[in-house]
Amino acid sequence: xxxxxxxxxxxxxxxxxxxECKFDDVWLYTEGLAKIxxxxxxxxxxxxxxxxxxxxxxxxxxxxxxxxxxxxxxxxxxxxTxxxxxxxxxxxxxxxxxxxxxxxxxxxxxxxxxxxxxxxxxxxxxNADAxxxxxxxxxxxxxxxxxxTxxxxxxxxxxxNAAAxxxxxxxxxxxxxxxxxxxxxxxxxxxxxxSVWDxxxxxxRVKKHDKYxxxxTxxxxxxxxxxxYLYSxxxxxxxxxxxxxxxxxxTxxxxxxxxxxxxxxxxxxxxxxxxxxxxxxxxxxxxxxxxxxx
Length: 294
What we know:
Distance between the termini: 13 Å
Helix content: under 10%
Strand order of the largest sheet: 4-5-6-7
Number of strands: 35
Number of helices: 0
């Protein structure tokens, strides 16, 4: 995605304009479609930049498992990739589909529906998140635990906060600190971090004493908490901020691309967007400029 004269569009890996900059905002493609915003409404375009689904929604999420959540007249429902209303807009809030189910809120309570819009887990939770490996974090009476796809409690409600599983582990909070548990509910990484994120490529971002670093799935500190900010690993590299400048490190914590940019984003298909002197361009994994700053 690129921005020109206040409008967004898309370029390819050669820097050629493939979708003209005419949208108020754009997001990455998922399942062949990209979410766009125009004149305050949301819709979708295809890879050619053609309007696949008109901008008529008050809000929209990405397509996941063939469906995208959309908001109309204050209520959420789901459309398919043809733009057809697959599930009516009747929910107060919802997330994305995962493993064939999605959490939806109705009258202040959360439950789960399937891709046909049928209720499969009753509305009885204070909050609910996505399923991963057959388990989903849910909140009840102020505590978080995990249920299976039948709605049965698998891990008891004893956490102050909880996230979905990633690479076999889930982040959970207790007494203001975060750690990780396995699918049996056993604590495998102690509660000692101020903030944590999902595992990606075997590593997870963690925050301690206002600095960021990475741990592995054993809880070992692979990259010390020394950065002001950083992102998850993507294609073997992670964008990090140090002393006001951004660069990239590899999974060993070695500086792969020097911190010389005003801002840097994740790598995708071998390229990453970086900002320098108020202009954006693209670099490759060697730090070489591939698409000039505009």
